[in-house]
Amino acid sequence: MSPALQAAFLETAGAPLRTCAERIRARRLRDAVEAVSHEKLDKALHDALELVAMRSGARLAALEQAVPREQIAACLARVEAAQREAAAVIVRYLASTVTLAPPAPSPRTAPEELRAVAASFALDRHIAVPLETLADDLATWQSALDSTAVRVVRHRAVTAALLRRWATRAAIVLAAGALAASAAAAFAWYRLVVGSSRARIDAALASPDPCSWETIAQGDLAHATARQLAEYEQRKPTCEQQRARQAHESSCATLAEHVESGAISEADQALAGTFAPLLRRAALRALTVEDLRTDGNGMPCADTAYAGRLWDAYARAASSDAALWSSAEHVSPHAAALLRRPGFQLTAEAADAQRQFSDGLARRAIKTGNPQELERAGKVCKVRSALGIEAGRACAALERVTRAAPNEKR
């Protein structure tokens, strides 16, 4: 008997049971029960017979005679009935349950997993019993597969086919012995070729560049070791990630250059996304007062150093626009922080425009005493303070007036 053939048979025939167990551990109970349907179990058994026939050289028809058909049919009938009842219970009661027992530390068989699920509903026998019945029938099916595997592998057709194969191999070995002397020179040459190929592969893989695998010739790969092939395959996704990162950084660099130079392309706008209008206005030095409200979220290329250059371009556009500050009544903390940095503070002309705007509003508000005008002037004076511009007499007087107003009411 060939242990390898028996193991291959059980591996193939037991595939639905393993799928069932895996899906239970993944909390996909309905899919798990569907995995052990009559059709899938029967097909897996047939696939296992075909596998043994292919590996042994025996005829499939001869192997099918070794299968205890009555036992198999009875097991399948019980499993089919239990499977349908369990599926109905799951659809009716457990379609959205999240109370299954946690997965075991080590994988269990499908019957064991089903019993564990049934134990979670020990008090609900109308749920637990169908699951326990299916678990018992699947355990019986597994036992039937075990006994069938032994019968199939020990069948005389398999034994005869293996003997023929072993005899053929023995003849080949004897023939190879006769040719050993003439093959020695060819083998030495082959080793030289293989050794050279593997040395070149090692040299390419020793490079820190993950894309160095591209320099390896296909002819050399034909002689690669399993280790070399594994490392070769591992480098491909790393190389693709590096290329994608390089392309992303290149696009970000282009975007930053275009914004700094005063014009952005359609490709730049696609990369900028929702920030495209703001960056376009920054490039044209035509920001609006609404642009001063940005909170800093959503800037493209935030995962690169080029985001800083984009914010610098925004700050340069804002700091030099006197017309903007002659009407700006609000500035976000993020924008104010950008404009307080050395080299990005408001130009003298822009700062004068803000002073005139805030002073004018403050004087008018003090003169009229209108609450709305006082509130508006107070906001503009706060913008002045946030930008690091000295308060001035008008804004200082406004602050005193607004502080004294509550006291006068009392």
Could you walk me through the main structural features you see in this protein, from its secondary elements to its overall organization?
The protein has 410 residues and is mainly α. Helix content is 73%, strand content 0%. It is built from 20 helices and no strands. The model has no long low-confidence stretch (mean pLDDT 86).
H-E order: HHHHHHHHHHHHHHHHHHHH
Helical segment count: 20
Structural class: mainly alpha
Structural domains: how many: 2
Helix content: over 70%
Distance between the termini: 105 Å
What best-fitting shape do the alpha-carbon axes yield?
elongated
* Percent range for β-strand residues: under 5%
Uncertain spans:
none
Main sheet makeup: none
Report the C-alpha radius of gyration, rounded.
39 Å
Total beta-strand segments = 0
Mean pLDDT: 86
Task: Describe the structure concisely for a colleague.
The N and C termini lie far apart (about 105 Å).
What key attributes describe this structure?
73% helix; 2 domains; 0% strand; 410 residues; mainly alpha
Question: Layout of helices and strands, plus pairs?
Answer:
Blueprint: H1 3-13, H2 15-25, H3 29-34, H4 38-56, H5 60-64, H6 69-93, H7 110-120, H8 125-153, H9 156-178, H10 180-205, H11 218-221, H12 226-261, H13 266-272, H14 276-283, H15 306-319, H16 322-325, H17 333-339, H18 348-368, H19 371-386, H20 392-409
Helix pairs in contact: 1-4, 1-8, 2-7, 6-8, 7-8, 12-13, 12-14, 12-15, 13-14, 14-15, 18-19, 18-20, 19-20
